[in-house]
Amino acid sequence: MTTVNILSGGAAQGLVRGISEPFKAKSGFGIDGEFGAVGVMADKLRASTPADLVILTQALLAKLAAEKLVVPASIANVGRVETALAVRSRDPRVTVRTEADLREVLRSADAIYVPDTKASTAGQHVAKVLDQLGIAYELTSRLKIFPNGATAMRELATSTATRPIGCTQATEIIATDGIALSGSLPPGCELVTMYTAGVTTQAAHPNEASALIALLTGADHKELRQRVGFAG
Known about the structure:
With 232 residues, this protein is of the alpha/beta class. It is built from ten helices and nine strands.
């Protein structure tokens, strides 16, 4: 089967999975691609990795358009995703209303599962928040850093730690079996990121890529977007 190839931030993996059958029925094309830290995906496109479309943060997609790697007119907002906390399904949920609450929750965890703190949206934010809370040095040895949020959440699900916690995009938490969304980050520590999609300038299947973006962003699939963790 011919496929549309995607390079995408991990935040959109659950949405793409949910849209694959409707897209196949409409176009006859399958969907293939890679999902990971947005910085890594952008660099793959810059390195000429074959891709028909990209789904990345709004700011990063604007850069790629300026670099003439994405068609500006094709860019469309998919939705906003918050960075949130996760626990294993069998563990008590945590309630975090203030920065002091978050500091205490993180300090009480014996393992903290996060995505790449340099190349991923959520990982960069976690590093920033730990600095902001004044506990970065204290918790360095407890950080369990993985290439992307999906991998970090799978590892959290099977963690043998006593009090593990995770922090990544809400969409990646919702998409992972064995863990539960445990709440938003508090005011002053929150992060809500707009994700956008665009057709690449070197797309082998630009028409099908545009059709896929229309499905991902269309009103008909608003409920699906909300279910997997996207907000308008």
